[in-house]
Design a protein that fits this description.
The complex is a heterodimer of chains A (about 325) and B (about 350). Chain A has about 325 residues and is an all-alpha fold. Chain A has helices at about 1-25, 25-50, 105-140, 140-155, 160-170, 175-185, 190-200, 205-215, 215-230, 230-255, 265-270, 280-310, and strands at about 70-75, 85. Classes of the chains: A mainly alpha (about 325), B mainly alpha (about 350).
């Protein structure tokens, strides 16, 4: 029992020191704050904005009752130039409206939880699948390792986006099938990463000591090797989170959206496709939101990597 | 293991990868009844029922899916990649591919040049001014690069450099497409052909058309390069021989450019190779946004139309490019760093 406590104390001290290093870096702090803000916004989105604006009752299957029009407030301080249809009514739209005449700011707020939710699922599920496959295969070694290695080779041999597009086009258009398509292409990097980690861990003396003590393989792998090798995976997952949001919304943008009226950042941006010069705000603001969210998570991941990598630690 | 043994091993692996990719893509594009039927392109209204039956029999379209694969393989080994659907006027898939491929090559070359020209200095500055203001600025630019939605950034570039520049009466860049002032007819690469045939107006116009899409592509990848250069530079600067070089009184400039940079660049060289390969295949979204007539945009159309012949050709060519790029990079690594043995 005593050794267990010592181990946890050491780990806690390490985490505390890492947090101290992270706090010292202003960019990581900024990234953490922005990410926390967007997570909070996502949790409160349905309270701040009435979700019926985006999902009206009595219109199933993405049928949306409004006519397509883009407007921008006439009294707004941003001047978009010629060709913009101005709105002189009593209502004020801070970011203008989308093609259905809905307030774009409210749509973006409703879109944030959708993007964060699916990106979280994709990142976590593919990280878990990739980690398990990589860890088990490389711990077992031999033929299992070789097979897994060759399978990841195939996945690395063509661009992930192409594969995701092909999967998505077979599976049909819905947010769930898009999620599945992205998970299918997203696990191989984690497998490779975990494989490398486990390969170096399993040669270490403590594994030999555990074997001598008679610990089972499952116990050695899951209780000792994976916890010791998991940090690079966590960093990779944080760094990937932004990329997942971008890829997910890119697929929606390219036309795998089940309905053009669903509030999702890529989908909202796609609404402005073809109206880039007469309604630039429709594509500008959703994309900017996406950039900020993704940048925040990348800043956190980048800081984590610097801190957790002892070679870059200062 | 000798180097040539390693190369042979990797080439054998390439064949395996090609088979796996083709089986995977074949199954996913033909095994599900949606999109264009693969025989649709072979049939035209004037054909009689017997002729249609003959076409179906010849290419094995009435067979089960695993037999169809071997029919496809047989056709491919004869050099027949099949026809495309109506989206490309039913031309042979390889003709469509190789008509558009030079445009993608041109775009990728330019994007790689911009990536290296901006990303490399950024990484070096970041490492030398580690954790000072220039490092933070470079870090934000680099991270912003790969946090940017590719399609969105392309549109923003068009909006500013085409639309607003023309509204404000400034000299503006063309917003989309390739130059139409001439025709690529020797190598297929418009700029090169313009220069070779003396049609300098065409070459210049094509260059102007290239600026926005290639910058849009480069902005996304230069961040990766800058980060890698920074990390490897930091590691090299900590080595004993750098301390040695400094302690024997060399100027800081000589230490950095002659001793540190040479070793720090090894990962950058390899990364650039991988980038180039990935750009060739991954430029889809940018090509779509800028209506660039490259293969990526055609592949996107093919995927939306469910056109299996073109998708198969596209994914196989890129599998070859990516695997070969990795191989070249590994071999280059061994030449650049004599410590590495295979």
């Amino acid at each position: 029992m005593k050794t267990r406590r010592g181990e946890w104390e050491a780990r806690l001290a390490d985490i505390k020191y890492s947090l101290y290093l992270l706090r010292k870096n202003p960019l990581v702090m900024a990234g953490t704050l922005i990410a926390a803000f967007f997570i909070l916004l996502a949790l409160l989105a349905n309270i701040i904005v009435d979700p019926k604006l985006a999902y009206p009752e009595g219109y199933p299957g993405g049928m949306y009752p409004f006519e397509r029009k883009y407007v921008w407030n006439a009294n707004h301080f941003i001047q978009w130039g010629p060709g913009v249809s101005l709105y002189y009514g009593p209502e004020f739209f801070p970011l203008g409206t989308d093609s259905y005449g809905r307030d774009l700011l409210k749509m973006i707020i409703l879109a944030i939880p959708v993007d964060l939710y699916y990106a979280t699922i994709i990142t976590i599920v593919s990280a878990i699948i990739g980690t398990l496959i990589g860890a088990v295969a490389s711990y077992a070694g031999g033929i299992a390792d070789e097979i897994v290695l060759r399978i990841t080779d195939v996945f690395f041999a063509f661009p992930a986006l192409v594969l995701a597009l092909v999967f998505a086009s077979i599976l049909g258009r819905s947010l769930e099938t898009l999620t599945l398509a992205l998970i299918l292409v997203w696990w191989p990097p984690y497998t490779r990463l975990m494989r490398g980690q486990v390969l170096s861990e399993k040669e270490k003396p403590y594994v030999e000591a555990l074997k001598a003590l008679g610990a089972s393989n499952i116990r050695i792998l899951f209780r000792h090797i994976i916890p010791n090798a998991i940090f690079p995976i966590l960093v990779q997952a944080t760094m990937d989170f932004g990329g997942v949001i971008l890829t997910f919304s890119a697929l929606m943008f390219l036309g795998f959206s089940p309905s053009p009226a669903i509030p999702e950042l890529g989908n909202l941006a796609a609404d402005g496709y073809g109206h880039i010069f007469d309604a630039p705000w429709v594509i500008l603001f959703p994309g900017l939101t996406m950039l900020i969210i993704s940048l925040a998570f990348n800043l956190v991941g980048d800081g984590l990597r610097d801190v957790l990598d002892p070679r870059l630690r200062r | 293991m000798k180097l040539y043994e390693y190369i042979i091993r990797r080439l054998i692996l390439l064949i395996f990868v090609l088979f796996a990719v083709s089986i995977l893509v074949f199954y996913f594009t033909r095994g599900f009844p949606r999109g264009i039927a693969p025989w649709a392109a072979y049939i035209h209204p004037k054909m009689t029922a017997e002729q249609i039956q003959q076409v179906i029999k010849e290419h094995g379209f009435d067979r089960p899916i695993y037999e169809q694969y071997f029919y496809w393989l047989r056709d491919v080994l004869r050099g027949d990649w099949g026809l495309t659907g109506a989206w490309a006027q039913g031309k042979p898939a390889n003709e469509v591919f190789f008509n558009h491929f030079p445009y993608t090559v041109e775009l990728s070359v330019f994007a790689t040049i911009i990536t290296v020209a901006i990303g490399l200095p950024m990484g070096i500055i970041s490492a030398l001014k580690n954790n000072k203001l220039p490092d933070h600025v470079c870090r934000v630019i680099a991270l912003a690069g790969y946090s940017t939605p590719a399609y969105w950034f392309g549109f923003m570039l068009q909006l500013v450099f085409f639309y607003y520049f023309s509204v404000w009466g400034l000299p503006n860049l063309p917003s989309s497409g390739a130059s139409t002032l001439g025709k690529p007819n020797i190598t297929g690469l418009p700029i090169l052909d313009g220069l070779l045939t003396g049609n300098f107006v065409y070459a210049w116009d094509e260059f102007l058309h290239l600026i926005l899409p290639s910058f849009s592509l480069a902005f996304i990848s230069l961040g990766f390069l800058a980060r890698i250069v920074r990390a490897s530079m930091l590691e090299v600067l900590r080595q004993d021989y750098i301390v040695m070089a400094r302690s024997k009184g060399l100027k800081e400039r000589v230490v950095i450019y002659r001793h540190a940079l040479k070793n720090a660049l090894i990962p950058a060289v390899t990364l650039t190779g991988i980038f180039f390969a990935n750009l060739l295949g991954g430029a889809m979204i940018t090509e779509y946004v800028f209506s660039w007539p490259g293969v990526g945009q055609q592949a996107l159309r093919a995927i939306f139309q469910g056109d299996s012949n073109f998708i198969l050709l596209y994914s196989l060519v890129f599998a070859v490019i990516i695997v070969l790029a990795n191989l070249v990079v590994d071999v280059l690594y061994a030449f650049l760093d004599p410590r590495i043995k295979y």
